[in-house]
Amino acid sequence: MHxxxxxxxxxxxxxxxxxxxxxxxxxxxxxxxxQNPYLDDFYNDMETWAFNLQIYFLGSRFKQIKEIRESGLDxxxxxxxxxxxxxxxxxxxxxxxxxxxxxxxxxxxxxLMNSFVQAPDLLIYLRASIPTLVKQIHQRGREYESSISIxxxxxxxxxxxxxxxxxxxxxxxIIDVDNLDFVNNPEDLGYIYDKVDAELHGLF
Length: 204
Fold this sequence. Notes:
Low-confidence stretches: none
CATH architecture: 3-Layer(aba) Sandwich
Structural class: alpha/beta
Mean pLDDT: 91
Largest sheet: 5 strands, parallel
Strand content: 5-15%
Oligomer: single chain
Number of strands: 5
CATH class: Alpha Beta
Radius of gyration: 17 Å
Order of helices and strands: EHEHHEHHEHHEH
Strand order of the largest sheet: 2-3-1-4-5
Distance between the termini: 21 Å
CATH superfamily: P-loop containing nucleotide triphosphate hydrolases
Shape: globular
Number of domains: 1
């Protein structure tokens, strides 16, 4: 079984991935952030490093999916390959930070990879407002994220909403995290567990 969690920067994907993996005895698979050689440079100079960063994420995510399918295990994945293309690369192109030539090159590689990719058995989308995202980004205190602008986060949110609205590749569970504190409130976490269980097993 392949579960994936999608959501904007600071929505709580990694934390919820850890909690769901522990509760349902799934193997967690996280974004390759600490080993990413382009992330610091990208946030300091997005235009110069946009293409490099997106290609790195694309390759890393495809490798993850290959490992998921070959493992035969129940795995929950922090972020999907589709977000790289439909959210982040698309947004960088819209902002003029990813040249059309590079964007089209990127999409050619993505579409080839995507032809070998199956949708997750369940996609969980964490919907969060800008104030919630900003609060949680500041709380975790990653230095390279300190330069992320409100405009950038807002553009990403718009892309996410458009993508989710048209998502039809499999089961989709939308969780509004603005009104939930699944880290500190066991009832909120239990609510999410029940929602996930219902989507996977048809329980009410």
